[in-house]
Amino acid sequence: MPTNSTNPNIRTRFAPSPTGYLHLGGARTALYSWAFARHHGGQFILRIEDTDLERSTPQAVQAILDGMHWLGLDYDEGPFYQMQRMDRYTAMIEKLLAEGHAYPCYCSQDDLHQMREQQRKNGQRMRYDGTWRPEPGKVLPTPPEGVKPVIRFKNPLTGAVSWDDLVKGPISINNEELDDLIIARQDGTPTYNFCVVVDDWEMKITHVIRGDDHINNTPRQINILRAIGGDQPVYGHIPMILGPDGEKLSKRHGAVAVTQYDDEGFLPDAMINYLARLGWSHGDDEIFSRDQLVQWFDSTSLSKSAAQFDPEKLAWVNAHYMKQADPAYLLSETQKRLAQAGHSTESGPALQDVLALVLERASTLVQLRDEAALFYRPVGDVKETLLPMLEEAGVKEALLEFQSALESAEWSHEAISGLIKSTIKAHNLKMPKLAMPLRVLLTGITHTPSIDKVIVLFGREETRRRLAQGLGAVA
User: Fold this and answer.
1) Which residue spans within 33-168 are E strands per DSSP?
2) How far is CA 473 from CA 368, 381, 414, in A?
3) Using CA atoms, how far apart are residues 51 and 43, in angstroms rounded to an integer?
4) Nearest-CA neighbor of 406 among 353, 465, 474, 347?
5) Given this model, what pLDDT does residue 256 score?
């Protein structure tokens, strides 16, 4: 069992773009970065990469913060916002221009389109051809009047960018495969790949754990980092999460805001446990606490293969955590959710007694609420459901006899269970023939916990009232 190897110099970060909610893939990236820092006794930083002004919204920022809070992923520094660091990016771009690591490019969109079309016709890789790249002895075109240039990074033409990836092992990409990346737009706004490099360097990030869709960005970022004289962090690129059908995770699979899982009744510790296993393992352990995750987590057990999201497995994990949860927490959460659904628990059995009965039947807090609601909501019209049951020989007579016997019966599980058994025996019925209409009369549905326990929880007066109301409606 690995133990924490304390290194307070280790600094990880989670850097989402606020162009949407915090989904499962982002939450897992945040979790791994958080767990790695906590395992080593280092620092975990939250950075909001909000330079995409057209798509970034305050609502998306809040959704990210809410998701992090719900999951309990506390950060040591931040949140930092890139739009508040524009001066730093501008200064660094000026430095690169002055040192010859960047240059202005006046190509219009039409120029770039024609460039790509010509390359396509020639069977070449479509890329920027270096028209405005300064080289010794090269005569550059005359800058067009009234056109603001973009700023491009002068990527090395030879050699390779190599790094030993925490997850995938050694990776090397030739510089010939990379073109000169735009690092500032015409309006002067710096681009994602440039801001990331400056931030990671100035925030002293030592380990970058992120999705493997960023692998193509990494060599570009390393080259920029070298140009500004920064230290290269350790990169780890984790595979994506796939849906149950093996396709890219989408909304139909569960790629929704993590806070929606709160709405659907999942526990944050269960979600942490489940997310951790989507690409990381500690032997065959399926269930582990947050503290155990921190103790065990290191990069050697990160999977190189894509993980598949399994809603049934998530529900199984959540059911386990619900059964282990503090009864006071379950009581509070169910009380809140019942109130939100319009159900009052003031009249009816004690909610803690109801939860003790129905907890085994629920995998989420929403299911727990719905099971508990049976004891606090009106039955409604059950005539259509009940009549076919009463048409069977002996059922109505058995119900009336049982109803009468309840008036003087001892009010305990044993006594009520015995009364049900003696009633079905007297009328030569099987258990479901009596239990099913009793369930409908008392709760309005056909599937409930053991009917004798339901009756005991309702109490004599409420049971009498519901039976009389239902049987009177079909008399």
Assistant:
1) 43-48, 77-81, 102-105, 150-153, 160-165
2) 30, 8, 30
3) 24
4) 465
5) 80
45 pairs with which residues across the strands?
Answer: 13, 77
Burial of 95 (0-12, 13-18, 19+ CB in 10 A): middle
What's the mean pLDDT in 190-208? 96
Side chain identity at residue 153, one-letter code: F
Does the pLDDT of residue 178 top 70, yes or no?
Answer: yes
Write the burial class of residue 171 (CB in 10 Å: 0-12 exposed, 13-18 middle, 19+ buried): middle
225-243: pLDDT as tens digits: 999 999 999 999 999 999 8
pLDDT digit string, tens, across residues 143-157:
999 899 999 999 999
* Spatial CB neighbours of 429, under 8 Å, sequence gap ≥ 6: 394, 395, 398, 423
Give the pLDDT score at 231: 92
Cβ neighbours of residue 58 under 8 Å, at least 6 residues apart? 18
CATH code given to domain 383-473: 1.10.10.350
Residues labelled catalytic? 251
Q: What is the DSSP letter of 447?
A: -
Average pLDDT over residues 199-206: 97
Domains 11-75+241-312 and 383-473 share a fold: no
Domain boundaries, the chain: 11-75+241-312, 85-238, 325-373, 383-473
**Rg of the chain, C-alpha, whole Å:** 32
95 labeled part of a ligand binding site: no
pTM of the predicted model, to two decimals?
Answer: 0.91
How do residues 281-327 score in pLDDT, each as one tens digit? 999 999 999 999 999 998 889 999 999 999 999 999 999 999 999 99
**CATH number of the domain at 85-238, please?**
3.40.50.620
C-alpha triplet 70, 14, 54: angle, nearest 5°: 95
Q: Which of helix, strand or coil describes residue 200? A: helix
Q: Please name the amino acid found at residue 223.
A: N
User: What CATH homologous superfamily does 11-75+241-312 map to?
Assistant: HUPs (3.40.50.620)
